[in-house]
Design a protein that fits this description.
It is a single chain. The chain has 159 residues and is of the alpha/beta class. It has a domain of 94 residues: Lumazine/riboflavin synthase (Rossmann fold, 3-Layer(aba) Sandwich). Helix content is 42%, strand content 21%. The protein has five helices and six strands. The strands form two sheets. A four-stranded parallel beta sheet has the order 2-1-3-4, with helices on both faces. Helix 1 packs across helix 5 and helix 2 runs parallel beside helix 3. The longest helix has 19 residues. The mean pLDDT is 93.
């Protein structure tokens, strides 16, 4: 696991640009809702801590991680500066995990190619629920925080 012994939420706050004039779209999967709600909390808390006002954050909920791609395409119509996709795919006993994980990763990659705004991959792909808990506010921090920081940095890069 790449996050072993590394808390995802550690960063140098002074190195992050002020985001008060940036507008963010957040698309969150409701599948594995306990995990994705934690990711969303991490995103929102982080954006607020960098002076993003609530009216500059648009949140769309979609049923599952597969639907994040279409949700991101639609939220782009809200003239956002960056899109953050949040999901949690937990491996089961079938190949469904592999198909969904690959499709979501490729779909978000394709959006980055075709859209004029960065689309951030905040999707957990874990072997079990405990790994997802550990990466959504547990011992390894919160991948939502990391996704928000990445979004701010990428918007700043494009400005």
């Amino acid at each position: 696991m790449t996050t072993a012994n590394k808390n995802l939420s550690f960063f140098d706050k002074k190195s992050i640009p002020n985001a008060s004039n940036f507008k963010f779209g957040v698309v969150v999967s409701k599948w594995n809702e306990k995990i994705t709600n934690n990711l969303l909390d991490g995103v929102l808390d982080t954006l607020y801590s960098f002076n993003v006002v609530q009216s500059n954050i648009v949140v769309f909920e979609v049923p599952g991680s597969f639907e994040l791609i279409y949700g991101a395409k639609k939220i782009n119509e809200k003239n956002v500066d960056a899109i953050i996709c949040l999901g949690s795919i937990i491996k089961g006993e079938t190949k469904h995990f592999d198909f969904i994980s690959n499709c979501v990763a490729n779909g978000i990659k394709d959006l980055n190619i075709h859209l004029d705004v960065p689309v951030i991959f905040g999707v957990l792909t874990d072997d079990n629920e405990q790994q997802a808990i550990d990466r959504s506010g547990g011992k390894y921090g919160n991948k939502g925080v990391e996704a928000a920081i990445t979004a701010i940095k990428m918007v700043n890069l494009g400005k």
